[in-house]
Design brief:
The protein has helices spanning 4-7, 18-25, 41-59, 72-87, 120-138, 170-197, and strands spanning 101-106, 112-117, 144-146, 155-157. The strands form two sheets. The chain has a two-stranded antiparallel ribbon with strand order 1-2. The protein has a two-stranded antiparallel ribbon with strand order 3-4. Helix 3 (41-59) packs across helix 5 and helix 4 (72-87) packs parallel to helix 5. The chain has six helices and four strands, in the order H-H-H-H-E-E-H-E-E-H.
Length: 202
């Protein structure tokens, strides 16, 4: 399956179902590298149709019912923001059940699957929450992160042994952050030296 929103930022897709969550997060705009995929009904609707059809085929599930409905994209955009907050640890608890439908199914090996139902927006939201639950259960959830570089914030899967990665690309975003830090230290030293020289000139 092709993860177009993730791949446009030169980010490796996460393993398994976390790639679906990552794909949704990476529909966000990162100027000048990419626009918001969900910004308008035409482009967002096309992405929603494509990703749900491809994910359903990959999983061997029935796809969503019908075409995207009014409100589907708004629903998916809200989900994207909630997921971003969840990834960064800033999400508010939600005590009331969310309005999604998942029905149990069995695959060829007799394993239980949580099968989403509903319109494309409902179907995608149900699929995403199911994958979040599975990732939290198997311990991979904490490896899905947003790049620490303020100008990036792309979603990436941390493959480092000790789960210590903070940038999706150390050479690009890591170097940019280190360069800013170096300039800030140099500026601070310069300012400190100038302040120390002032009394001698009086």
């Amino acid at each position: 399956m092709s993860w177009t929103s993730t791949e446009r930022y030169f980010v490796r897709p996460a393993p398994g179902g976390l790639a679906l969550v990552q794909e949704l997060l990476n529909t966000r705009a990162i100027p000048p590298h990419g626009e918001d995929v969900l910004a308008d009904e035409e482009g967002g609707g096309r992405w929603l149709r494509d990703v749900t059809a491809a994910w359903a085929e990959t999983q061997g599930w029935p796809g969503p019912s019908g075409e995207p409905r009014p409100g589907d994209l708004k629903r998916v955009r809200a989900l994207r923001e909630r997921l971003a907050a969840l990834v960064t640890g800033e999400a508010e608890p939600v005590r009331a059940p969310m309005d999604v439908s998942l029905r149990p199914g069995l695959d060829e090996a007799g394993r239980v699957a949580l099968v989403p139902v509903g319109s494309p927006g409902e179907w995608l939201e149900a699929s995403v929450w199911a994958q979040v639950l599975l990732a939290q259960t198997d311990g991979t959830w904490q490896r899905l992160k947003l790049c620490r570089e303020p100008g990036c914030r792309s979603a990436f899967y941390d493959r480092s042994r000790n789960n210590s990665g903070v940038w999706h690309d150390v050479r690009r975003c890591g170097n940019a952050a280190n360069l800013r830090a170096s300039r800030a230290r140099r500026k601070q030293r310069t300012a400190g030296a100038a302040a120390g020289e002032a009394p001698a000139g009086e």
